[in-house]
Design brief:
Elements: H1 4-25, E1 26-27, H2 31-43, E2 53-57, H3 63-72, E3 82-87, H4 91-103, E4 109-114, E5 127-133, H5 143-152, E6 154-165, H6 170-182, H7 196-206, E7 211-215, E8 218-220, H8 230-240, H9 249-262, E9 264-266, E10 269-273, E11 276-282
Parallel strand pairs: 2-3, 2-5, 3-4, 5-6
Antiparallel strand pairs: 1-8, 6-11, 7-11, 8-10, 9-10
The chain binds S-adenosylmethionine (SAM).
Length: 284
């Protein structure tokens, strides 16, 4: 007999395997967020920047975290170990994250993994850096509260970094078009996805000062156009945030033509434009 936690585990497993395919085809610019952090740390020249504790919310397989930890090595106070705390509810992602860290040759890092959602995470600890890297989409309605709580969890000169797609990312157009195609009653998420413009409004409403930069990222969707490609099917599910396994041939063709309309060709590949933005919000 299946319990709801079995169902949840299966959802996590399905998400993790489709995210792996998404990652494989995603041309990211992870360095951009690190460059912003570096600029921020260097602008604090009068005071020496030290980073000894980080909170990563929704690290997934840990690709960005690996780069961040490498980058932060220069800011760890002499003789101390970096404390790296993660909040990741997906058990598959936690396993992959551990493997990523083990194979990354990061030196001494004190890893602490919490198998919960950020909404259920409580700590009295304070951090030098908290980041949500492409994870805020999964906490709809909680963004304002999470920003305020994160700022409370920062040490005096700490910084909150939020990276997410901008409103120009064509995935939002596809999700909205899908809602129109199948009817909003069946599928009502199109409007609820957070992107950089909506997040900026929340941050402005709170009255915070921050830096924002956007930069291009792309997704190779060529596999969607290959017949019987399992990778293509997974990408289609991701693009429309739907399970299209049982969708009719006609619906799949219609959706494929929507992808084709927003795709462009580069070196014989079909690409989607998914620009990303990073907000850097210092403790205030
Ligand atoms: C799109 S992935 C991003 C992973 C990684 N940060 C990256 O940039 O590749 C989103 C991650 O957020 C996690 N997540 C989803 N809901 C969450 C929540 N409520 N609290 C914390 N993490 C969550 C997911 O399990 C997943 O690992």
């Amino acid at each position: 007999m299946s319990t709801s936690s079995d169902a949840q585990q299966q959802m996590y497993e399905a998400y993790a395997s489709s995210y792996a395919i998404f990652l494989k085809n995603w041309q990211t610019q992870r360095q951009a967020a690190l460059d912003m952090l570096e600029k921020h740390f260097k602008s604090n020249l009068s005071k020496q920047t030290e980073v000894s504790s980080v909170l990563s919310v929704g690290p997934g397989p840990g690709e960005f975290d690996k780069q961040l930890i490498h980058f932060l090595q220069q800011y760890i106070p002499k003789g101390q170990t970096l404390k790296y705390v993660t909040v990741e509810p997906n058990h598959v992602h936690r396993q992959i994250f551990e493997a990523t860290m083990q194979s990354a040759g990061l030196g001494e890092v004190d890893l602490e993994m919490h198998p919960v959602t950020i909404e259920d995470f409580h700590t009295l600890e304070q951090f030098d850096c908290i980041h949500y890297t492409h994870s805020l989409y999964h906490m709809p309605g909680f963004e304002r509260q999470l920003i305020l709580e994160s700022l409370n969890m920062l040490k005096d000169r700490g910084v909150l970094v939020i990276t997410l797609d901008t409103e120009e990312a064509v995935i939002f157009k596809l999700i909205a078009q899908y809602a129109e195609v199948v009817g909003n009653q069946e599928y009502w998420q199109g409007d609820s996805y957070i992107e950089a413009k909506k997040l900026r409004k929340i941050i402005d409403d709170i009255g915070l000062s921050y830096k924002f930069e956007s930069y291009p990222e792309y997704l190779d969707v060529s596999a969607c156009f290959e017949q019987n490609s399992s990778e293509g099917r997974v990408l289609m599910d991701f693009l429309f945030q739907a399970n299209l396994r049982n969708a009719s041939w006609e619906l799949n063709q219609r959706l494929l033509s929507l992808v084709d309309e927003v795709a462009f060709e580069q070196n014989g590949r079909k690409m989607l434009y998914l620009p990303t933005g990073t907000f850097l919000i210092p403790k205030q």
